[in-house]
Amino acid sequence: MELHGRYHEMAPNVVPMDYTKDPDVKLPMQLIINMPELKENPFKERIVESFSEDGEGSLSFNDFVDMFSVLSEMAPRELKAIYAFKIYDFNTDNFICKADLEKTLNKLTREELTAEEITLVCEKVIEEADMDGDGKLGFADFENMISKAPDFLSFSFMFHI
Amino acid sequence: MCKSQQQVQLLFILCLAAGIEIDGQVESDTQSEEDEGKEKISKKQPRRETVRAGRLERKKPQRDKEDESKEEENCPRQNRASRRKKHQKKNGDGKNAEVKERDKKASTKDQKNSENKEKKTNKKQKEGENKQKKDRKNSTSSESSNSFDEESLSEEELAMLMEQVEQRKKLISTMRNKPWRMVKKLSVLREAQAFVEKFEGALGKGKGKKLYAYKMMMAKKWVKFKRDFDNFKTQCIPWEMKIKEVESHFGSSVASYFIFLRWMYGVNLVLFGLIFGLVIIPEILMGMPYGSMPRKTVPRAEQATAMDFSVLWDFEGYIKYSALFYGYYNNQRTIGWLKYRLPMAYFMVGISVFGYSLMVVIRSMARNANQSTADGDDDNFIFSWKMFTSWDYLIGNPETADNKFASITTGFKESIVDEQESNKDENIHLRRFLRVLANVLIICCLCGSGYLIYFVVKRSQTFSKMQNVGWYERNEVEIVMSLLGMFCPPLFETIAALENYHPRIGLKWQLGRIFALFLGNLYTFLLALMDDVNEKLAEEDVVKNITRWMLLGHHNSSMGNSSADTPPPLDPADVPRGPCWETTVGIEFVRLTVSDILVTYVTILVGDFIRACFVRFVNYCWCWDLEAGFPSYAEFDISGNVLGLVFNQGMIWMGSFYAPGLVGINVLRLLTSMYFQCWAVMSSNVPHERVFKASKSNNFYMGLLLLILFLSLLPVAYTIMSLPPSFDCGPFSGKKRMYEVIQETIELDFPLFIAKIFSYMANPGLIIPAILLMVLAIYYLNAVSEAYQRANAELKKKMQMQREEDKNKRNNKINNNSMMQDLEDLLAPSTKSEIYPKQAEGKKIESPDQAVPFGKQGKAEVLNGSPMTTGRRAVLIPPPHLLVTQPPTPGIWAPYSYPDKPWPGGHSLGLVPGRGRGHPCNSHAA
Q1: Hey, is the C-beta of B394 within 8 angstroms of any chain A C-beta?
Q2: What is the average per-residue pLDDT within B78-102?
Q3: H or E stretch at B603
Q4: Do B514 and B640 touch, CB atoms closer than 8 A?
Q5: Phi-psi region for residue B412, left (φ > 0), alpha (ψ -120 to 50) or beta?
Q6: pTM of the predicted model, to two decimals?
Q7: Which of B653, B774, B757, B667 is nearest to B715 (CA)?
Q8: Alpha helix locations (H) across B175-251?
Q9: For chain A, give me the number of helices (H) and strands (E)?
Q10: In this model, does residue B243 exceed pLDDT 70?
């Protein structure tokens, strides 16, 4: 209910209050990323994209609820890891490769690191987490790494609803 | 409208429902109370045996009818997709009814129908459908004949039913763990709910359910409360936000200074409470008022100027004769109606100030040591964690976000510096030579400055004996010292650049060296003070004789004039008095502290703020770039500030015995400097060029503090144990030594046998063995801790090795796996989906193959990405539901075998096709 309220609020003229007729309504990404929860997030576009069914960033109400349920504090670690992987996988090739890492880093630091520093960090990340030696992180690598991180569950990757 | 609410509510429930039973408990929680009986899923029923089930069966038919209608009612609410799925399923059911026995076929059909479901759910679904089918049969028969046909269900079937219901419920409760789209979740949930509803509707509706729901709700509330409380607690930590802000811009090393400052403030606050509560306030409330006796009165000669600001500024005049200093206190054994033993309290507080500080410092050192060993070992994924988990998704405030960005950047920079440092390898001999050279240079510097101080102090002693010396001669020692303090640290820093240490280690060296320099400073000060005290003591003897004589004379004269009762009418201001060396020492310390505060603040103001302003604003009209060039902005001087703080604290510890008010001044100082320095840092400093991470435990600061504490304990202990207190001021006047106050208390206030025990305990024959015992204990504990450390290091090494091994193993395994998988692809295409269920699930790549009936396989292949499988579409064309019943002809896969890899020939060849067939069989049999 609460969520529907939020959803409705974002675009009162598009979203009907009445969901009995099962309308096929989607909200464009621009509206979603202006939510206070997402506004400051450097990965907001990616988040919305990876939750939207068509991959374009438009969210139906179901996708919207999906997003909140994954990012709620009660969602289990594995589920969060799956979606985190999707979010960090910028080019959606099911691997986090160097380009993805560079993008992540630039978003995190607002491009304040020099090129050498970025390459150094990316190399280090792959060296640390890449277990199968293919030069990029598969989901298994990612999960293995993230499951040992102390603060992955506690405060990162979580919303207040 | 109502229906839409139901829908939304259902979604919401889905979101909330999971206080998820990861541990496999089959209980979903809030649903039960939130759905207001709409969805009658029963939770948490123990498997009540067939007796109960039989009863259930009897009720079933009616329920079925209800459910049937309800389902239809639900239908419009569901999304199109789910409806479609349902529809398909019904079709499947119909077919199933026709070909009852061929379960295998049905299952393949199911797989086709539900495109991207996991195998597990497929199975469940299939079973569910079978059940539904049976169910429908039941219901139709019951409709037609209106008779119960539970006899037609055998016991076995009942048991199976129960099992399936359990499975369904498990599915419901773990629904949220599955990375599915919400649409799918919804439809599956609905199905499962409907199913469960049918068979379990009657169960679990007792009181237990409500109680359980209530319990769950309370548990959830409790969790929430705990989190809120944690938040509240962090909010209560003073200056946490300020420090975090500084940390995010300047790195953890600068923040470590502020954390240290905060800790200091806490300690001083406790000391302040101790001294004020137990000494100053009782004295003010219950002691004799000002002016009642000589030690509490300003002498006649000084009264005229006692209120002048310049006098007060030097802590003379009224301030000198106030409760802030030692001399004000009376030696009366007990004061007030409480019989408060003030001298005793004074002594004990003086001791306990040191005791408490020692305890706190050592305890926090121990805790830091614990921490550093506790979480120091998991450093395998520094960069990865920084990359993927550093963003706090809760941030919603632009300012916080800015801070977070800054802190993440600094964090990365810190790690990069660490990394570069560990990777550096250059000429080790050259570096060693440079380090030795640097140390030699610095030792020379220290010796030189030590000699200089010694020389100056000697000279000042000769000066002090001469008359009419100039201003420079009088203040020579101070000037030399402050010059040394000003120029030596930068000199050390330049020399330290030779050594090329990691900045963190460099900081420690720097701290140690400046510390050595300052120690010389401190001890010359103390020596000068000692000289002063000795002089005062000599002077005191003279005054003592005078006073005694005077009082005697006065007494005699008053005896002659009036009755013996009247007190001597001599005004307290007129009584000649001794110099009271304790107060002098106290004043000295207070002055030192205050001037230190002023110097610090002025330095910050001029050196940082004015400079920053100058650089910032004059830069517009200057010939070179001021910001990048010579003056630039100041960096925050961590070593200087930490040492300033440590030495200041040393002064406080030494002085607090002679000037109880000193701690109050210090508390004020720390409080203001917290705000002032935070402001100065944020406004006018720039981060270090190489931002480096502070070591997790600031035990080095603590170590310095402990050393200073010990050093400041020495002079105080010396004065207490071996100097006679002044005869006419302070709580211990009239005694030979200060510690006699304890003996006095024991003798007068305690029963005799306790006094005896004390006297035995003070016996050297007991004390020496006790000390020996302690030394032995220390030795033993030290040995034990060393052993632990060694074991720790060993374990760490082992873990590292194991990790490497894992990595290697995994490498090999994955190679093998990929080969096996390729083979399996070839042989049994339908099993392919099981190998990559997650990926097929998680990614919805819109591959053009999706229109093809084998969309699933096509997708899996795309995901797999190996050119071999994608190139082999032709092989897959035969419809998969015609099972691969015959072993594949070797011709198909022979071209794709790996000629270059050592392949265990016949054995694995036999195994692999078997596997290929085995999988679908398994999935159907289950």
Answers
A1: yes
A2: 41
A3: helix B581-603
A4: yes
A5: alpha
A6: 0.61
A7: B653
A8: 182-200, 207-236, 240-250
A9: 9, 2
A10: yes
ipTM of the complex as predicted:
0.79
Q: Which long-range contacts (CB under 8 A, 24 or more apart) does B87-90 make?
A: B88/B113, B89/B113, B89/B125, B89/B129
Q: Is B78 on the interface with A (CB under 8 A)?
A: yes
Q: Which residues of B touch A82 (CB under 8 A)?
A: 179, 838, 842
Whose CA is closest to B477, among B445, B524, B515?
Answer: B524
Q: Which residues of A touch B376 (CB under 8 A)?
A: none
Residue type at position B38 = K
Chain B contact set for A104 (CB, 8 A): 387-388
Q: For residue range B375-424, list pLDDT tens digits in order.
A: 544 556 677 777 777 676 666 667 667 777 777 787 777 777 777 777 66
Tokens of A139: 């989901």
Q: Which residue of A has its CA nearest to B814?
A: A132
User: Would you place residue B374 in the very low, low, confident or very high pLDDT band (cuts 50, 70, 90)?
Assistant: low
- Mean per-residue pLDDT over chain B, rounded: 68
* SS3 state at A153: coil
Contact B382 A128 (CB under 8 A): yes
Decide if B179 contacts A69 (C-beta within 8 A): no
The amino acid present at B475, given as its one-letter code, is: N
Instruction: Determine whether the interchain pair B397/A2 forms a contact, defined as Cβ–Cβ distance below 8 Å.
Output: no
Among the residues of B75-118, which ranges form H helices? 80-98, 103-113
Is B183 in Cβ contact with A68 (below 8 Å)? no
Q: What is the mean pLDDT of chain A?
A: 71
Beta carbons of A74 and B16 less than 8 Å apart: yes
Cα separation, A10 vs B230, whole angstroms:
32
Measure the CA–CA gap between A58 and A37, rounded to whole angstroms.
17
Cite the DSSP H helix spans in B500-569. Answer: 503-561
Instruction: Please choose, from the candidates B650, B645, B614, B653, the residue with its C-alpha nearest in 3D space to the C-alpha of residue B632.
Output: B614
- Largest Cα span, chain A: 56
The pLDDT value given to residue B513 = 84
Give tens-digit pLDDT for B581-593: 888 888 888 888 8
Amino acid found at B521: N
Q: Tokens at residue B895, please?
A: 């071209």
CA distance B293 to B276: 22
